Each structure stands twice: as structure tokens, then as C-alpha cells.
Amino acid sequence: MKLAGLKSIENAHEDSVWAATWVPATEERPALLLTGSLDETVKLWKADELDLVRTNTGHSLGVAAVAAHPSGIIAASSSLDSFVRVFDVDTNATIAVLEAPPSEVWGMQFEPKGTILAVAGGSSASVKLWDTASWRLISTLSIPRPEAPKPSDKTSSKKFVLSVAWSPNGKRLACGSMDGTICVFDVDRSKLLHQLEGHNMPVRSLVFSPVDPRVLFSGSDDGHVNMHDAEGKTLVGSMSGHTSWVLSVDASPDGGAIATGSSDRTVRLWDLKMRAAIQTMSNHNDQVWSVAFRPPGGTGVRAGRLASVSDDKSVSLYDYS
């Protein structure tokens, strides 16, 4: 696999761009790129030209995360204003507004069948699960507290949850915390199965392999990308190459590669057989907060696509083949 830069939009937003995901294709339209920014807006872009389709407003503070429903019909944006806004992709009509206390809405992802939206709960030390039919909170998966915290140390009594990822079959949910640990839950039983170790700094991004529900990738401020067996609770491998924090990780649709974005301002492509970085892209001049592979599907889709967004306010699009 190889990346080739296709197009970059400078000043795609008026402030840092923290979030990106792909809205799957529907029968009426191809996939769209969805980006969220500290400028309080969410934007939709055409997949091949990066032409702006629409700018969505509705938040009063910066957008920290975006998520797209597998149907391609609805999407969600979470903001530092403590609200998650669920909206119709094609009309921007508000479908639901989910409220959370401050610092309790970070990463989020729809379950693969689309029935649940999982939200990483930040300082609540939990993951909140919302039913997408009623938009009611149906479960809270709590992260266990560290053992025997010092009475004077208020921060050690809770974990700050930054990232969340569903397994491809929807049976497992993983979340990454500020202290470097990763928790894996059995969602049907709302039960913590185990904690994965291997990082000693914040885990800002997680993604399961699309072809093997056991394999989980994690990116951390320690500069490493780790590969875990999420069922056997073992660290399969650790890949290094970034010179600073790994802020985002995503897996290619065929499961053969992953891409990462880092505060070292680069996007890297990793071959999973070699377990090494095979390409470094330097399109951005500030930290890269999110990388996202376009999902397969849609009529007339040409090649694969990878998108990246950055504190430099730009959006970059790459071809991969």
C-alpha cells in the first residue's frame, strides 16, 4: 500500500481542526468527509474533490469529536460546550441533543449496526451508551478506580477517558484513559473483561482491526502504536517511529495497514506484516489530530482515500492503493 497526496485545503476551518470521520455512502450520494473544529463548526466535504458541501453550526464552543452512523444518514458532533448534537447529514436538521456535565464528552463512535452511540466520558471515568432509537442513556460502563489512592491525591481516584472503539461485531467496546490503560468491556453484559497495559501516557485513539475482532490498535502520547490481542489481553507488538505524541490511529478497510497522525506534524502509514512505518507524509505544519480511511462502498468509488486534519486549520486528502 502506498499513499499519494491528492489535495489539501488550507484554512478549511477558521481554527484548529480536531476531528474527522467519513460518512458512509447512501443510495443517493457517495461518502462524505466530516470534520469538526475549534471554530465551533462541523463541515461536510466531497470525497474526491474536497469541495465544501455544507457548514453546520449549533455548538457554542469547539468541536472535539465527530462520529457517523453506519447508515450514512445521521452523524453526531461533540463539543467542549458539553453537548452532543445528533443531526441529519443531508439536511442538518437536529435529531437529538445529548447533554453531559463539563469535561465528560470526548471521543465517540456508533456501534457497527448503529443501535448505540458510545461516548468516552472524560472526567466521569466512564463510557456512556445512548440508544439511537430513543436517544436515551441505556448504560454507563464505569472504569475501575486505581487501588488505594493517596487521600491527598484527588486525581488518582478517577480515570479520565479519552477514546473509545467498537469491535467489528459490536460485542466488545474498548476505551483508553489518560493514565495509559485500556479497558475492554463485554457490552451485552455491561461487564469489564480486562485492562490492557503497554502505554504509560494518555491513550488518545483506538481502533479495532476490521478483519480480526481480536486485534486492537492504540495510539499514545508515549509515541508508540501498540497492537493488542483484546481477547487474550496480551500485547502483540509495539511500533515506534513518531517523534512525539500519537494523536490518532485508523485501520485500512482491508486490515493490512494502519495510519497515524501525530503532534510531530506527520501522517505515517504502517505495514502490519512488517510492523513498521513504510511512509511518512508531511503535508501539515502543526500537530495532526485525526486520520480517517474512507469506508468501502458506494457507486462509482475509484480508489481508497485517507484524510487528515490538523491544528494548522487544513484538511488533507490522500489516495492509497
TrEMBL record:
It comes from Brassica cretica. GO terms for cellular component: Cdc73/Paf1 complex. It holds the Pfam family WD40. It comes from the Eukaryota. This is Anaphase-promoting complex subunit 4 WD40 domain-containing protein. WD repeats lie at residues 10-55, 56-97, 154-195, 196-238, 239-280, 281-321. SUPFAM superfamilies: WD40 repeat-like. InterPro entries: SKI8, WD40/YVTN_repeat-like_dom_sf, WD40_PAC1, WD40_repeat_CS, WD40_repeat_dom_sf, WD40_rpt. Keywords: Repeat, WD repeat. SMART domains: WD40.
